[in-house]
Write a structure and sequence with these properties.
Length: 311
């Protein structure tokens, strides 16, 4: 069995392609609680209270979709080694390895997974001073849920190539994958097409989680689903739609995994386990429609030459 390409340290940031870039940037800064690092024509980079340069990048597009998921690795040497291992596996590389030349600087490599998602491994990126955490605003991005047409193939790629570990299953419908002690930083949902399901933002405490929901209500933004508490991951949840229709989640209290003691569990998909508090009720047709998104071929549409590459 081949070694994973790198040791992922954490989820750094997510880029979303959106049909409502300006309105979404306003929403995430004025309502959601992120702060603008820089905004330009059709682009925005937004930070939380943590030390990541940015946790969300918004890019104007004709169709909603996932732009890129960025993970932290320790050193440029690990990025170079990851590129060599990607090449040995015939995984297509679309940028790097080398200095990114991007707003957050750093040394990285970007490649494409079997469903066209762009994944970046990044070291030596710029950091920003941490902000006070008393306010009910996000620390950063804590996980991304992705819709997939083949959950087994997706899990195999992210565990075998990226070295992630499966924390739990929700029957054979969802798989929760971790790269550190957090229960999951990526989850896959079996679906009719590949797309981004939602992006989750960490709130420091349950109190701030609830106060953040209150702030959104003050702005007349109501949850699509929540608040509640999930069984898998034990995290609180409340899901909202941004102006472009993409789903964002406030969450807190995600389970921490002790690698020596954790046993992967297959959870039943029943209401009392999808929401252990019993406050949210089952997800509505509306929230499921938002989470389904639209078919997103990702890099395969933007880099048609990749379709002929053996993966």
């Amino acid at each position: 069995m081949k070694e994973p390409i790198a040791k992922l340290r954490r989820l750094r940031s997510v880029e979303l392609r959106t049909t409502a870039c300006a309105d979404s940037a306003d929403f995430y800064t004025d309502v959601w609680g992120l702060r603008a690092v820089e905004r330009g024509d059709g682009e925005a980079w937004l930070r939380g209270t943590g030390d990541e340069h940015h946790v969300l990048q918004l890019t104007a597009a004709e169709q909603n979709g996932l732009g890129r998921i960025t993970f932290a690795v320790a050193t440029p040497a690990e990025v170079d080694e990851a590129a060599r291992r990607l090449d040995a596996r015939n995984v297509p590389i679309i940028a790097g390895p080398g200095p990114t030349g991007e707003i957050s600087a750093g040394y990285g490599v970007s490649f494409v997974d079997p469903e066209g998602r762009i994944i970046q491994l990044l070291a030596d990126a710029l950091a920003v001073p941490m902000l006070r955490r008393e306010e009910a605003v996000p620390v950063g991005v804590t996980h991304v849920v992705l819709n997939t047409v083949d959950i087994d193939a997706s899990v195999e790629f992210y565990t075998d190539v990226l070295g992630m570990r499966v924390s739990d299953w929700s029957e054979h419908q969802m798989a929760f994958l971790r790269c550190n002690s957090d229960h999951h930083s990526i989850a896959f949902n079996q679906a009719e097409w590949a797309s981004v399901n939602h992006v989750a933002y960490e709130m420091p405490t349950i109190d701030q989680f609830m106060r953040g929901i209150g702030r959104l209500r003050h702005h007349r933004v109501l949850p699509l689903w929540g608040p509640g508490r999930h069984g898998p991951g034990d995290n609180t949840f409340s899901y909202f739609a941004d102006p472009g229709g993409l789903v964002c989640e406030y969450t807190s209290g995600v389970a921490q995994v002790d690698e020596d003691r954790w046993l992967c569990r297959v959870w039943r998909r029943v209401p009392e386990l999808s929401d252990t508090w019993g406050t949210a009720g089952p997800p509505s047709v509306d929230v499921r429609t938002h989470m389904a998104g639209v078919p997103d071929r990702g890099a395969f549409d933007r880099h048609p030459d990749l379709l002929g590459v053996t993966r």
